[in-house]
Structures are given as structure tokens and as C-alpha cells.
Design brief:
Layout (H helix, E strand, L loop, with lengths): L2 H25 L1 H21 L13 H18 L1 H4 L2 H21 L7 H8 L4 H24 L14 H8 L8 H32 L4 H13 L7 H13 L6 E5 L4 E2 L5 E2 L4 E4 L1 H6 L16 E2 L8 E2 L21
Antiparallel strand pairs: 1-4, 2-3, 5-6
Helix pairs in contact: 1-8, 2-3, 3-9, 5-6, 5-7, 5-9, 7-9, 9-11
């Protein structure tokens, strides 16, 4: 494959990811709302039941561990379907995989590259988590691919409704002329899965901390959620959206973003030079916590991301949490940012 073909393949993959995650999955959120709510409820009930209550009927749980388990259980349904999402062995591996990957990446950044091939397998525990996930995913993805191929034949009829999960969304979205193998689909799912657990869990922990620090928002958030659930419009919650966005502004998961390795020497207009092999990045934390773009930047104020109501109408989001913005580079920048 020459350089042009590689570039075209990367661009096609980026477009496919965007379509599946931002369009197709989003269009199915209404149908997933009830089963996702049930999984979250069951996970929380199970975690609380596993810990002893004190004399005042309180119990203490580690927030990050609880957040990761809850996020992993819910996302597993949307990614892999109800059968795998309810399998304890698969869930254990799906929770361990992002943790092993993150720990390995952080350690490898601190040691000489010559030692990476020795240290990485040890830190990844012999790749137990990824191997377990692949073992479960292979027969599911292969069976769906074969069924899809059979149903695409002339005169064939669809015999059953399609599953509502990311496995199926990727299968449906792949160009038939460049059909992906089972291995490639699994690689894509595992690549996305890391971000699907790690980032939301961190976001949830900080949001809970901010909620405890600013209890004046609790009742309004509870009322907003109650109204939207009754209207089956869970996604339309401007206060919750602004609350999460402000929480992440003050507590970004990293201090830098948009890391890019320099392939050719480059000089900026101010004279700053980048040499081949350098790594350029955006100062994420400095931008979002600085006074340049956010007045009273150290204060927690979700209202900065909400538009004022007019004629008694409900307030709306001035900018959504998921928007890509140079002044809020949490999600990266450019057309491939999700």
C-alpha cells in the first residue's frame, strides 16, 4: 500500500468513526435509554449491596472504582449488546483493559524505548484483558458478518431485526467494496473502548465532587432530569450539559491536548521553530482555566455556558459540552475530533 492509499484509508476510517459514534449511535439513544438506565441502577445497587452499612445506614465506596464499573457496564451494552454486557467474565476484562492500557502507556513514557518490549507485556499482564475480549468478540462479529453477507445476496430476505449496538453499526457502515475483516472491526472497537471508559469515569468523579461542593444545583438538576425523563427527551438538559462542561473546564483529565509529532521542520509566524521529531501540543488546562477566554476563571459557574432565557422560555445551552472549540479543546481539534 503506497502513501496515498494509507492516507485515504485513514481519512475513510475517521469519517466512519464520526458517522457511527456521532450520527448512528446518537440516533438510537432514545431506544437505549431504558435499558441503559436499568444497567446503571443494577450496577449501583450491586455495589452498595456488596458493602456493609453502618449504624446510620451509610456506606463508603471508592468513587473512581464505582464510576468505572458503572460506565463500563452501561457502555458495554451500547458497544457490544446485552448478551456480552451481562457476562461477568467479559465485563471484568472490559474494565481491566483500559486500566492496563493507561498504566502501561504512562510507565512507558518514563522509561527508555529499548525496554518497552520487555516491560509492556508485564504491565499488560500478558494481555489477558485484550485476549479475553477478543475471545468473546470474535464469534459474535464473525457470525454477524456471515449473516450480513448472506442477506446481501440477490433474492435473500432479512430473517431477523438487527442488534442495536456499535458492532452492528460498524458492520452496517463499512463500505461493501472495502469490507473490513473480523479482526479489523475488533481492533477498532477495542481502540474506541479505552476512551469510552476512562474519560467518562473521570468526568463523572469530578462532576460528583463539584455537585457536593455546590449543592445549590442539586434540586434544579433533579427537577430538570425528572421533566425530561417524563418527556422522553433525556438529551435535552441544558443545565446538566453546562454543569458537566464547567466541571471538565476546571478539572480536565490532562494538562495538554492535540499531541502531534512533527514530520517536517516548521516555523510559526512568531518565530517559534519545530524540528522533525518534536511533539507539538495545545495547553489544554492553561486555556480552559485562564482569564483570556473565561472571566473569573477559577470560579465554578455553569451559567457561562448557558444562554439567557427570553420571553419566559426555558434556558438553553449557549454551547454544548460535546462541541469542538479552540477555547475548549477537551475533545481535540479539527475534522477528526469527536
Amino acid at each position: 500500500m503506497n502513501g496515498l492509499e494509507v492516507q485515504d484509508d485513514m481519512q475513510a476510517n475517521g469519517s466512519l468513526h464520526t458517522r457511527v459514534l456521532r450520527v448512528v449511535l446518537n440516533s438510537h439513544l432514545a431506544a437505549l435509554q431504558q435499558p441503559l438506565s436499568q444497567i446503571v441502577s443494577n450496577t449501583l445497587d450491586g455495589e452498595f449491596a456488596a458493602h456493609k452499612l453502618d449504624s446510620k445506614q451509610w456506606t463508603e465506596l471508592p468513587s473512581f472504582a464505582l464510576a468505572k464499573k458503572t460506565v463500563a457496564a452501561a457502555n458495554a451494552l451500547a458497544f457490544f449488546g446485552p448478551e456480552l454486557a451481562s457476562d461477568p467474565s467479559f465485563l471484568e476484562a472490559s474494565l481491566a483493559y483500559p486500566e492496563d492500557l493507561f498504566l502501561t502507556a504512562e510507565v512507558l513514557r518514563l522509561i527508555p524505548s529499548a525496554l518497552h518490549f520487555i516491560v509492556a507485556p508485564i504491565l499488560m499482564r500478558g494481555h489477558w484483558a485484550s485476549k479475553t475480549m477478543v475471545k468473546y468478540l470474535e464469534p459474535v462479529v464473525e457470525a454477524r458478518r456471515l449473516r450480513q453477507q448472506a442477506e446481501s445476496q440477490p433474492g435473500a430476505e432479512s430473517k431477523s431485526s438487527k442488534p442495536t449496538d456499535c458492532i452492528q453499526f460498524f458492520l452496517d457502515s463499512v463500505n461493501t467494496k472495502n469490507n473490513w475483516t473480523t479482526e479489523k472491526i475488533i481492533q477498532v472497537l477495542l481502540g474506541i473502548w479505552f476512551a469510552a471508559v476512562h474519560q467518562p469515569a473521570i468526568t463523572l468523579v469530578y462532576a460528583l465532587g463539584d455537585l457536593c461542593a455546590h449543592p445549590e444545583y442539586i434540586e434544579a438538576l433533579r427537577q430538570e432530569a425528572s421533566d425530561k425523563v417524563s418527556e422522553s427527551r433525556l438529551a435535552d438538559q441544558p443545565l446538566l450539559d453546562a454543569f458537566l462542561k464547567e466541571s471538565c473546564r476546571l478539572h480536565p483529565s490532562d494538562s495538554i491536548s492535540v499531541r502531534r509529532k512533527v514530520m517536517n521542520p516548521f516555523t510559526f509566524q512568531d518565530g517559534t521553530r519545530l524540528l522533525e521529531g518534536d511533539v507539538a501540543c495545545v495547553p489544554l488546562q492553561a486555556i480552559m482555566r485562564g482569564e483570556t477566554y473565561y472571566s473569573q476563571s477559577t470560579q465554578f459557574s455553569p451559567a457561562r455556558f448557558m444562554a439567557e432565557s427570553q420571553d419566559g422560555a426555558s434556558p438553553k445551552s449557549a454551547s454544548k459540552f460535546t462541541d469542538v472549540d479552540p477555547h475548549y479543546p477537551l475533545w481535540g481539534l479539527g475534522r477528526h475530533a469527536w
